[in-house]
């Protein structure tokens, strides 16, 4: 029987409240980054691995689990793994920390392997394998499909939030889950060794109220990243460096930052929200369109 592994990248960009207390981390961006890494690793190891969602939209949960159900009805051996960042408290920073994995009856053994590997590789607190009335695990169980939901650290914990924003941590999570799935199915975990080249990031144009900026952003894992200072100053924002958090601040707020060739970039939606801009993506021209007074 042919096997398909469905990787679900958690919530979408517009899911309410799914962000860190300081608004520097959006859960959807973390979920999608880890999910895409995981799919690539599973494909390298020979699996038919697919994403339930290929962009940053808020696909309803039922549509996600229905994809697994339909494959099951077509005769495939299906596994569904959902990727998430955890949260606790009432909107502020929390002391809750660690990794936990939710499962249904069909995936208990796999969930134990995933949890063990994640804790060993990240050194975060082991919160255990759990059961709860979650859509992903409940609806897959109805059709005899193994369902797992991984909570990969708390974005409401200051220390873990900083970890969740790093490429190194995301790579650790994706690798640990991929190795766990390989172990469960008795498949060797493989890494790509075919003349690795630096990934070429597609460029994106930037407009503010219809005016094209003389700088460009780029696409990474389906997320547009924009040069922070150029965009913020063009929109009348204030950019500064905070020595306390060791982060760039825009209009007094920390912003998720990555550095490319000496220039700081931030996710388009996060930067736009801080600047009070509406954001629109034009796929045809590969342009991020920002508009003042419309957010």
Give a quick set of tags describing it:
Aminopeptidase; eight-stranded mixed β-sheet; 295 residues; six-stranded mixed β-sheet; globular; alpha/beta
End-to-end distance: 49 Å
Number of strands: 17
Number of domains: 2
What is the radius of gyration? 20 Å
CATH topology of the largest domain: Aminopeptidase
Number of helices: 8
Largest sheet: 8 strands, mixed
Q: Tell me what the CATH architecture of the largest domain is.
A: 3-Layer(aba) Sandwich
Enzyme class: hydrolase
Protein name: N-acetylmuramoyl-L-alanine amidase
EC number: 3.5.1.28
Domain MurNAc-LAA: 68-182
What does this structure look like?
This protein folds into two domains: 3-185, Aminopeptidase (3-Layer(aba) Sandwich), CATH 3.40.630; 203-292, no CATH class. The mean pLDDT is 89. It is 32% helix and 29% strand. The chain is built from eight helices and 17 strands. The strands form three sheets. Strands 7, 8, 9, 10, 14, 15, 16 and 17 form an eight-stranded mixed β-sheet that branches. A six-stranded mixed β-sheet has the order 2-1-3-6-4-5, sandwiched between helices. Strands 11-12-13 form a three-stranded antiparallel β-sheet. It is of the alpha/beta class. Keywords: Hydrolase. This is N-acetylmuramoyl-L-alanine amidase. Its EC number is 3.5.1.28. Residues 1-22 are annotated as: Disordered.
């Amino acid at each position: 029987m042919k096997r398909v592994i469905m990787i679900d990248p958690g919530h979408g960009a517009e899911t309410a409240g799914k962000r860190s207390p300081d608004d520097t981390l959006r859960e959807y961006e973390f979920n999608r980054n880890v999910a895409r890494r995981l799919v690539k690793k599973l494909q390298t190891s020979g699996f038919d691995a697919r994403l339930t969602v290929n962009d940053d939209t808020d696909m309803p949960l039922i549509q996600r689990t229905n994809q697994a159900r339909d494959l099951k009805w077509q005769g495939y051996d299906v596994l569904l793994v959902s990727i998430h960042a955890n949260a606790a408290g009432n909107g502020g920073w929390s002391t809750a920390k660690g990794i936990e994995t939710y499962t249904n009856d069909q995936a208990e053994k796999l969930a134990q392997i995933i949890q063990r590997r994640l804790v060993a590789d990240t050194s975060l607190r082991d919160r255990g394998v759990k059961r709860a009335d979650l859509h992903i695990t409940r609806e897959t169980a109805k059709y005899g499909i193994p369902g797992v939901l991984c909570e990969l650290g708390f974005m409401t914990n200051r220390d873990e939030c900083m970890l969740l924003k790093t490429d190194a941590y995301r790579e650790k999570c994706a690798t640990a889950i991929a190795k766990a799935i390989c172990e469960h199915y008795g498949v060797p975990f493989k890494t790509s060794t075919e003349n690795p080249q630096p990934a070429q990031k597609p460029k994106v144009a930037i407009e503010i109220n219809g005016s094209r900026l003389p700088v460009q952003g780029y696409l990474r894992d389906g997320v547009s990243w924009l040069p922070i200072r150029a965009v913020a100053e063009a929109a009348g924002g204030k950019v500064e460096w905070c020595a306390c958090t060791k982060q760039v601040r825009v209009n007094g707020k920390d912003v998720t930052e990555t550095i490319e060739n000496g220039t700081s970039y931030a996710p388009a939606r996060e930067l736009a929200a801080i600047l009070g801009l509406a954001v629109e993506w034009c796929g045809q021209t590969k342009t991020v369109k920002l508009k003042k007074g419309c957010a």
